[in-house]
C-alpha cells in the first residue's frame, strides 16, 4: 500500500500539498514502494487517497505516470479493488494503481 502523491501526481490546481515534493511524510511511502517495484515479486501497489466512507463504485483508477484525478478514496472502493486483486493474481500485476474519487468530473 502506497499513497496518492508519492509520484508527485496530484495536480497543482487540485491542491498538491500531499505530493512527495511538498510532504516529507510521503518519503517512507515512496521508499517502500521503490523497494517493491525493484523486486521480483508479483505485486500491485495500491495508492489510495484520504480514506472516507462512501459508495463502493465511486472511484477511478490511474496508473504510475498519470496525473491523479483526486486525493480522496472511499473505504468500500478500496475493499472492492483489493478483493478483485486477491481473486486474480494477474490483475494489475507489477503495476502501481491509484484509486480515488474522480474530483475532475464535470470540469
What does this molecule look like?
The protein has one domain (12-100): Rossmann fold (3-Layer(aba) Sandwich), CATH 3.40.50. Helix content is 22%, strand content 20%. The chain has helices at 27-37, 75-87, and strands at 44-48, 50-52, 60-63, 72-74, 95-100. The strands form two sheets. Strands 1-5-3 form a three-stranded mixed beta sheet, sandwiched between helices. A two-stranded parallel ribbon has the order 2-4.
Short précis:
With 107 residues, the protein is α/β, with parallel strands linked by helices. It is 22% helix and 20% strand.
* Percent in helix: 10-25%
* Low-confidence parts: none
How large is the share of residues in beta strands? 15-25%
| Shape label | globular
Provide a count of the helices. 2
Number of strands: 5
Q: Which architecture does the CATH hierarchy give at level 2?
A: 3-Layer(aba) Sandwich
CATH topology: Rossmann fold
User: Structural class of the helix and strand makeup?
Assistant: alpha/beta
Strand order of the largest sheet: 1-5-3
Quaternary structure classification: single chain
Report the average pLDDT across residues.
Answer: 95
Main sheet: strands, sense, barrel:
3 strands, mixed
Span of the ends, CA to CA: 29 Å
Order of helices and strands: HEEEEHE
Amino acid at each position: 500500500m502506497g499513497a496518492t502523491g508519492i509520484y508527485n501526481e496530484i495536480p497543482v490546481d487540485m491542491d498538491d500539498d500531499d505530493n512527495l515534493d511538498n510532504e516529507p511524510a510521503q518519503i517512507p511511502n515512496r521508499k517502500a514502494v521503490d523497494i517493491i517495484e525493484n523486486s521480483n515479486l508479483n505485486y500491485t501497489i495500491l495508492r489510495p487517497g484520504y480514506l472516507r466512507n462512501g459508495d463502493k463504485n465511486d472511484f477511478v483508477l490511474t496508473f504510475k505516470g498519470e496525473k491523479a484525478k483526486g486525493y480522496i478514496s472511499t473505504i468500500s472502493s478500496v475493499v472492492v479493488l483489493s478483493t478483485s486483486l486477491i481473486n486474480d493474481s494477474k490483475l494489475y500485476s507489477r503495476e502501481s494503481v491509484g484509486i480515488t474519487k474522480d474530483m475532475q468530473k464535470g470540469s
